[in-house]
Structures are given as structure tokens and as C-alpha cells.
Design goal:
By secondary structure, this protein is an all-alpha fold. It has two domains: 36 residues; 207 residues, MetI-like (MetI-like fold), CATH 1.10.3720.10. Helix content is 69%, strand content 2%. A two-stranded antiparallel sheet has the order 1-2. It starts with 13 loop residues before the first strand and ends in a 14-residue tail after the last helix.
């Protein structure tokens, strides 16, 4: 209990009429097929990926330092009262002095965000598969999902607190709702954008509808799924905090409400700093697992600009 405030075109395919499949999962040829990322000559370079990660880390740190410099200059130039805009040094001092309280409440919010991310990703993936797997069901369900997505999350949060109580369940549900639609939308879009030639070639085999989705559509749609996950994952703490603002007994959102009532703006900024750190860590985690989710579709480095 926390203390209260005080595809590869060069690969020979399996011929089916006028179309050519990069592989056929329904024949003996599939046993010899290996994803492009595992073939010699097209495997992603670990040194390239490590250099890209270092570049992203450097850019992130540079952006944070630039934001802190602008913040400090604004405090020096405008001299606002501390309850309106505290100095970065004051926020850092609060982060250290109240580290036990912030760690306790931050752990609560992080757990809610992670559980919401897992639940929202699973539900979004099932919804994306369902809308494409059962087109008639998708035609009926997708407009309903669009309407639900258009509703303000602040309007849903009181209902979730009423249904699930003031505990963790309502915050996990709120975070899952925020995660759900980007994952479902990106995956469904990726499944619908399969090359028509591949679908025509698959129709000439003994593949059923669901086997075609599993072996052809889904692998080709996984990069779109990862893109949706990249968009959705940083939103997980946002959903959890919105739920805590409406009604909670712990978490960073609950702590921010208490700090705001006492004009402890430096503590509010400390909570925001922890939320920003959670967002960056979630995005970094998705970027780290992306090559393992889609090893057959490695990312390429951008082409150098020509002068």
C-alpha cells in the first residue's frame, strides 16, 4: 500500500497456372521453404540493427535535453510562480525526495498499462482476424467498432468504473480500449491488402479459406500488425491514467489529482516524467521484439539523400 500525500521476388516459387506463389504451405515444397530473413545474402545485419538502435537512443536523448533546455530558459525568462511552472531542478529534486511514493504509484500504473496492452492487443488481433475471416460479420461489426472508437474515452471511463469498480480492473479495461482499435485496424488492413495474384494462386490449391489466411494472408499482414502495435503501445499508460483520474485508490493519475488539489505542481511534473519514461520504454520494447515477430520482413535503412 503506497503512502498517501502529504515477400522476396528473387525466390523461385511454386508454379500454379499463370501465378507463382513464393511458397506453397500445402505441398511438399513448403518443407524446403525458408523465410527470406534466414537465407544467405538477405539476413538483416546485427551491426546495422545495433547502429540504428544507438541512433534512435541518441536522437531521443538529444530531444529530451533540448526540451529541458527550452523549459529552463522559459523559467529564467518568464519567472513564473513555482505552482504554475516549476524549474527542472525542482522536479528532479521531487523525483529523488519522493522516490518511494512515486515508485509505488508508478508500479501500479505500469501494471495496469501492461495488462491493458496485452488484453487490448489480443482483442484487437482477434477482431482484425474475425472481420476478414468472416466478411459478413466484419461488414456488420466494423461500423459498430468505428462508433465506439469515436466516443471520447473520458465518457467511457465513468461507466467502466461503475461496472468494474475502483480497483485495477477498470483501468486495465480503459487501457485495453485505447489499445484495441489501432491493433485491429492495422491488422485488418494488412490482411485485406494481400497480393491478388497470391490469392488467385492459392485458390488453385487445396487450401481452405482459413488455411489461406493462416499461411498466406497472416504472414504478409504481420508487418502491418507490428506497425499498429507501435502506434498503440505508447497509449497504454494514457488509458490507465484516464481511468485513475475518474476513480482510483492508487496510481500516478490518482497521485496527480491529489497533487493538483494541493498546488504541488512539481510533483505533478514528476508524475508526467514517469509517464513519459513508460511511454518510451513501451515503444522501445515493441521495436526490440519487432524483428522476432516478422523475421521474414526485416527493416531496411533509409537511402542516403543525394545532394
Amino acid at each position: 500500500m503506497c503512502r498517501t500525500l502529504e515477400p522476396d521476388p528473387g525466390h523461385a516459387g511454386v508454379g500454379t497456372g499463370n501465378a507463382t506463389l513464393p511458397f506453397s504451405p500445402f505441398s511438399s515444397a513448403s518443407r524446403a521453404w525458408t523465410p527470406p530473413a534466414y537465407r544467405p545474402g538477405v539476413k538483416a545485419s546485427g551491426r546495422l540493427l545495433g547502429g540504428r538502435a544507438a541512433a534512435v537512443l541518441f536522437q531521443t536523448l538529444f530531444g529530451l535535453l533540448a526540451a529541458l533546455a527550452v523549459w529552463q530558459l522559459a523559467v529564467l525568462a518568464l519567472r513564473p510562480p513555482p505552482y504554475m511552472l516549476p524549474a527542472p531542478a525542482s522536479v528532479a529534486e521531487v523525483l529523488w525526495r519522493r522516490r518511494d511514493l512515486l515508485l509505488c504509484e508508478g508500479t501500479t500504473t505500469a501494471a495496469e498499462a501492461l495488462l491493458g496492452l496485452l488484453a487490448g492487443t489480443a482483442a484487437g488481433a482477434l477482431a482484425g482476424l474475425g472481420t476478414v475471416g468472416w466478411p459478413r460479420l466484419g461488414a456488420l461489426a466494423w461500423p459498430v467498432l468505428l462508433v465506439l472508437q469515436s466516443l471520447p474515452v473520458f465518457a467511457l471511463a465513468p461507466l467502466l468504473v461503475l461496472w468494474f469498480g475502483f480497483g485495477m480492473a477498470s483501468k486495465v479495461a480503459m487501457s485495453a480500449i485505447v489499445i484495441f482499435f489501432p491493433v485491429a485496424s492495422f491488422l485488418a488492413d494488412g490482411l485485406r491488402r494481400t497480393d491478388p495474384d497470391l490469392l488467385d494462386a492459392t485458390a488453385l490449391t487445396e487450401a481452405t479459406h482459413w488455411r489461406a489466411i493462416r499461411h498466406v494472408r497472416l504472414p504478409l499482414a504481420m508487418p502491418a500488425f507490428v506497425s499498429g502495435l507501435r502506434v498503440a503501445a505508447p497509449l497504454a499508460p494514457l488509458g490507465a491514467v484516464i481511468g485513475e483520474w475518474v476513480g482510483a485508490s492508487g496510481g500516478l493519475g490518482f497521485l496527480m489529482i491529489q497533487a493538483n488539489a494541493r498546488l504541488q505542481t512539481d510533483l505533478m511534473f514528476a508524475c508526467l516524467a514517469l509517464l513519459a519514461a513508460m511511454t518510451l520504454l513501451l515503444r522501445a520494447a515493441v521495436d526490440a521484439i519487432a524483428p522476432r515477430l516478422v523475421p521474414w520482413a526485416p527493416e531496411t535503412s533509409p537511402l542516403p539523400s543525394r545532394s
